[in-house]
């Protein structure tokens, strides 16, 4: 069977499974799309990913229902779970796969979240991951005690101190101190276990942490910022960057920037992994996959969805426009309310609108074609073998260290990939055939957490 | 034959059991307490005995005999998972057992707690509950750092202040439960429509802002989690004092009380019923479970004496301590039930001995008397308590 040889320079690929919500990526109208918030759906998705020996399963987070034009947005698949609670439930039905929750550092407090993440790492035997986000949706505060929103730089300052504090908590109680010597009456061998103190601009807390160190000590840390602040935060703090730069050329620019920042910070560039989020379309041939991709894109971006997305960026009502007609001109939109979605790098919508408009003009795109071009990423197209080649090449040419994949339906979207593309990657010698590490971190080939 | 009144039995799992020295004679390597397997085995034991549910304690601090947390004991069990997270971890290892973890209201976000409990209900398909807990413990306040709890600070705060603070924290808990309940209802059951012609996944008219404004927080909603399978997972309150009676009567489904004996049990039931009337609670009334620490078996007294000696003092507890045989415990249970108690939350002195004596001794004894179920018949925790799935408060009449 194994006909394809590993070429010199081929690097191991890291792969993860995403589970999108609130995104047009999922074709909810497809009969293969099952119930969204349903334990059987989640179990199917995570088990499929583990059958494919994927590195991790990842959940996104949003802390309010998205609104558009002052009303709840109703076009995308939506409805989520409290991420960590779901992952603890999935830990019990899996053995090897990493479990990554996206959790905000803006709307949580370190002690409680460090405890929840430690719980997941203990209960999963060392498979916890934390995608740290600062929550860029300014309206989320309406659901929290904190209320208002923090400015961008302040959010990253809080995230930095949050993480430093969480590390202190995770390091405060070495597992070796749990001796459980009944006859001698020593449950722990040190009366001070868990003692910690954090005094900083963001947090002033002290006391004792409530759990001994978990198998990985710290969860695998992921970050999805894109701004200069965000990239620097990642280089200073995390193991994996979840990026939006799936297209290989853009990917290489992002990759080079981040790895250079890592080198400048005195960090082994190999210790930070870059993983764009993307989709793929499998076909009988490249042209077949391309044709399917076009068809699928039109099902992902419905006419209503195309208009809504353009309205978000154009900042005005466009409901009388034809989604398959020309893109209307941009007006001065400086005060456009940011109504959800992630503006790349936090660019103000008016600049984004100008860029989109220029692109539509230059490429003669209809509204729908424009929205397809700017929101979808069918990065990998072709037969399973061709897709395996594309992924292998992208990783060899430093467009990424791997990818966070989302199918087009949920929860079945990765079934075909696992069945047909994963074996091709394995044949090329660039993807594991068995999990070999004892923990998520080990499977990623990351060094253990450095000394306390 | 009269249909017997259903008896409810819950088991409170914590550490190696509730006696502080129980861990010292258990054949469990200490590291096992920090893994899924140990807890999954306990849950399976409870499920095999058809127990209603298990509960888990939770604090935002490590266990300590001192409210400041600054004790220097090495002989006490330490370390505790997040209770909701632990419960979630056990859902896939069980099929019928309910889970009622503690989540504290004093230092946490209602939005997170409500979505976490809703998720627990989704992943267990309707077996979740929530024990609401108010924290008056200064060590927790120091660990979270969002507010100070002056109550037990060294200078000694005047008792009027203490009383006011206490009342405020309970009022906040009431707001917290109210907002959680609204969030659970903020998605109607049929909110997802997948309407192809209009391209709408959701009927936005079936999602609702909860628009709650209280003294310490406001929450707009709607939730990001669809309505939980039970609609409203049961809410429990440990009721030691009047504030807690009021909280329970106003917004809970289950109240735990800590009677000293059967007469006290009957008195507490009456007191709770009175508070229910006072606050104008509508049917159904609270299910009242008595908390009881239990040492069960032929060797129970000896074991307890040995552990007391190891701990250096007889065990003290807010709840009554029962020591005796399964038959004696069954008789106690039925006597208290006759006084109006709906059931018990048993706190086993040790998991290794007393939990097993409950599941394999007490339960068969009660079953033999026709006083406890021999099989699970209800699919959800609410149904187990005879509670119907409630109407959604936001659904158009
Ligand atoms: C691939 C990707 C996934 C993201 N997922 C989430 C998410 O689940 N929840 C969230 O609040 N933010 C998410 N974000 C937003 C980022 O955390 C970040 O706020 C955004 O990329 C803007 O970058 P900046 O904060 O560096 O300006 C995501 C971003 C990217 C690129």
From TrEMBL, chain A:
Keyword Flavoprotein among UniProt keywords: yes
Region (Disordered): 318-348
Entries under InterPro entries matching the protein: Diverse_substr_monoxygenases, Luciferase-like_dom, Luciferase-like_sf, NTA_MOA
Domain of life: Bacteria
Binding site for FMN: 102, 152, 156, 227
Start and end residues of each Luciferase-like domain: 33-397
Key word Glycoprotein present: no
GO molecular function per UniProt: monooxygenase activity; oxidoreductase activity, acting on paired donors, with incorporation or reduction of molecular oxygen
Pfam families, A to Z: Bac_luciferase
Keywords associated with the record: Flavoprotein, FMN, Monooxygenase, Oxidoreductase
Family, per entry: Belongs to the NtaA/SnaA/DszA monooxygenase family.
NCBIfam families: FMN_nitrolo (TIGR03860)
Protein name: FMN-dependent oxidoreductase (Nitrilotriacetate monooxygenase family)
From TrEMBL, chain B:
Listed GO MF terms: monooxygenase activity; oxidoreductase activity, acting on paired donors, with incorporation or reduction of molecular oxygen
Signal peptide positions on this chain: none
InterPro entries: Diverse_substr_monoxygenases (IPR051260), Luciferase-like_dom (IPR011251), Luciferase-like_sf (IPR036661), NTA_MOA (IPR016215)
Keyword Isomerase on entry: no
Keywords (A to Z) from UniProt: Flavoprotein, FMN, Monooxygenase, Oxidoreductase
Binding locations of FMN: 58, 170
Residue ranges of every copy of the Luciferase-like domain listed in the record: 25-318
Superkingdom of source: Bacteria
Protein family (similarity comment): Belongs to the NtaA/SnaA/DszA monooxygenase family.
Protein name as it appears in the record: Alkanesulfonate monooxygenase SsuD/methylene tetrahydromethanopterin reductase-like flavin-dependent oxidoreductase (Luciferase family)
Lineage: Bacteria, Bacillati, Actinomycetota, Actinomycetes, Pseudonocardiales
